[in-house]
Amino acid sequence: MILIFALGLIVTVSCSNLDEKRKEQSTVKFPDSIIEKANIVLTSEGKREAVIDADTLIVFDKEDSTIAKNVKVDFYDENGIYRSTMTARDGLVRQKQQYITAWGDVVVASDSSRLLTQSLKWDPLRKLILTDDFVELHRGRDVVTGYGMEADNKLENVRILRDVKGKISEIPQSEQELDSLEGKPEKEIIP
Description:
This protein has 191 residues and is α+β, with helices and mostly antiparallel strands. The chain has a single domain (33-187), classed as lipopolysaccharide transport protein A fold (Sandwich). It has 2 helices and 9 strands. The chain has helices at residues 2-27, 175-181; strands spanning 33-44, 47-60, 65-76, 82-94, 99-109, 114-123, 128-139, 142-151, 158-167. A hairpin with a 6-residue loop joins strand 8 (142-151) and strand 9 (158-167). The longest helix has 26 residues, at 2-27. It is elongated and about 60 Å long. It starts with a helix and ends in a 10-residue tail after the last helix.
């Protein structure tokens, strides 16, 4: 009788463990597809806004989530002209919203500037690159650092939000050079 009771208890415990494992497995989400050496083109009104290249894309269609590994994004202006390139270890793309988030050794480079940070987001509605992390912006021999940032995708208009510090080498030396800066916020440095 004790043996039958013990066997019944073992079977009951084993079955409840199987039920728990089945519940755990049913909540695990599997990707709809995994793409190696992938390319995504984001457009707005038929015009190219960004081209995303990644070593691997892990796609979850229902969630509109695509996880990207070893990401490179080329940004374009409203006329489809190249503006800058961003690279990062990882990223998240929401294709329907045209929203991109990147993290891990993020670098954005344009023809005149280079930005280093650990994470950033592309907001397609405001057409801005945003981060709350520490940033380091290089322009020529000038370096400006701080926390938090808003910038256009060419890094022409950059606003660092707090704890701003800088090393400025290219200071205008004449009244004419100062006047030439008016209307060009990319040259304006606020301590």
